[in-house]
Design brief:
Number of strands: 0
Helix content: over 70%
Number of helices: 16
Shape: elongated
Radius of gyration: 25 Å
Strand content: under 5%
Largest sheet: none
Structural class: mainly alpha
């Protein structure tokens, strides 16, 4: 069934199943629904989904999650919430992926009251519903100011969701955007202490963040440190450095020269040089 769906022949194959004496089971129906939603045929997928309920071939949590995510992607969040409620009513237990799909899209439209209501449900249900790294990162991305972050991280850690390398990189990006250098320093130190970085993504965030703030010395420092560790810059970072070199030549190399001279007089991280 999976292979047929990948070749775009799911509809014909499904008709053959219906015409035969074979009765579609939960797995076959779920696989077809997944294929339909991936190809943007949500309407057809919803009809089949409804038929499963009506014929007592109850969809499992994976199929329900597929429908919920597709509805959210199409910005049909109220309908997705209806499917979520129906899952609960029919004793199809949701999991963290179910909640994360809803939270992701509700955060985008800033329905934060509903988002925190869902988070409380996840905490109460526990087990497979407990918040995870994905949940944490959706909440962090929706943060509007630095003061919101510590409480959120503490709440997630109480649920057993500790920061990962991706979480630290997201925090670096947020704090750089907010120009909160003290928190940038703390995040970098914690990431190193816990053995979760820095990686190429960490350096890329620092390089582009400092460049956006016109801080040439820090930009060059982190680029050199990254390459000295054998990390290959992202294409956009190479383009940035080429652009800086061209600009420096036009200006007689004074900006980069001054940054290099200043860099040779200092050692360690340059957090306090603003």
């Amino acid at each position: 069934m999976d292979g047929v769906c990948e070749r775009g022949q799911a509809k014909r194959f499904w008709k053959d199943i219906i015409a035969s004496e074979c009765k579609p089971d939960q797995f076959a129906s779920g696989t077809l629904i997944n294929a339909l939603t991936k190809k943007g045929k949500l309407g057809t997928g919803l009809k089949l989904f409804r038929a499963m309920w009506d014929q007592d071939c109850n969809p499992d949590v994976v199929t329900c999650n597929c429908i919920i995510d597709a509805l959210c992607f199409k910005k049909r969040i109220p309908r997705a919430l209806e499917v979520f409620q129906e899952m609960n009513a029919r004793r199809c237990c949701p999991n963290a992926a179910t909640y994360n799909s809803l939270i992701k899209h509700l955060c985008k439209v800033r329905c934060m009251e509903k988002v925190y209501e869902l988070l409380e449900e996840m905490e109460q249900r526990k087990g497979s519903c407990l918040p995870n790294e994905v949940t944490s990162n959706y909440f962090l991305k929706s943060s509007k100011k630095p003061e919101e972050v510590p409480g959120l991280l503490e709440r997630m850690q109480k649920n057993g969701c500790n920061p990962t390398g991706d979480t630290y990189n997201l925090l670096l990006k947020l704090y750089m955007e907010w120009d909160c250098q003290e928190r940038v320093r703390y995040t970098w130190d914690e990431m190193e202490k816990n053995g979760l970085g820095p990686d190429r993504r960490s350096y890329t965030i620092m390089i582009h963040g400092f460049h956006d703030k016109r801080r040439v010395k820090e930009t060059l420092r982190y680029f050199r440190e990254m390459t000295s560790k054998g990390m290959i810059p992202e294409p956009r970072t190479e383009i940035l450095m080429d652009s800086m070199n061209v600009q420096s030549k036009k200006e007689g190399g004074e900006a980069v020269k001054q940054a290099e001279e200043n860099d040779s007089l200092t050692s360690g991280p340059l957090w306090n040089n603003s």
